[in-house]
Design a protein that fits this description.
Elements: E1 2-8, E2 11-12, E3 20-21, E4 24-31, H1 38-47, E5 56-61, E6 71-73, H2 77-84, E7 92-99, E8 124-126, E9 131-133, E10 136-138, E11 141-143
Parallel strand pairs: 1-7
Antiparallel strand pairs: 1-4, 2-3, 5-6, 5-7, 8-11, 9-10
Protein name: PB1-like domain-containing protein
InterPro entries: PB1-like_dom_pln (IPR058594)
Pfam families: PB1-like (PF26130)
Length: 149
């Protein structure tokens, strides 16, 4: 069993020295680590009066860390497993909610400033028979000809 201190209704200030401002907090006790999920967190937010149609971003803070470096996304089963991994030593964990958008770069987004270049390439069709060269699998490709199905 564990408890959550849920910070909600606010937003994060800028890094460094990040804080959660203009919000409030609520405690949820007697949670079963084996049954906890993101869907259960969704239900908690409904009970706290939030509209289920709003986009909500969930984060948890690693115990003994600060909001600059300790925030972790809490949006998938894998994220829940990370949160639950702290339960044996920490019975009270902190969760932070952002509404509509997130300003924290740990949550399903590129950190920005991408160097990706998208360019159109001629379509190549791989041949069925691979050749082996120095224990490396090499697939031969050839251009697609017009009229092939």
């Amino acid at each position: 069993m564990f408890s959550l201190k849920i910070y909600h209704g606010g937003e994060f200030s800028k890094f460094p020295g990040r804080q959660y401002v203009n919000g409030r907090h609520s405690y949820i006790d007697f949670l079963d680590a084996d049954e906890f999920s993101v869907h259960e967190l969704d239900s908690m937010m409904l009970q706290l009066g939030y509209d289920g149609n709003r986009k909500m971003y969930y984060h948890f803070k690693k115990p003994d860390s600060d909001l600059d470096v300790g925030l972790m996304a809490l949006g998938s089963d894998g994220d829940v497993c990370k949160l639950i991994s702290y339960v044996p030593k920490h019975r009270l964990l902190e969760v932070y909610i952002e509404l509509d958008k997130t300003t924290v770069c740990t949550y399903f987004q590129s950190p920005g400033g991408s160097n990706v270049i998208i360019q159109e390439l001629k379509m190549m069709v791989p041949l069925i028979i691979p050749e082996y060269d120095h224990e490396v699998l090499v697939l031969q490709s050839r251009p697609v000809e017009k009229g092939l199905n």
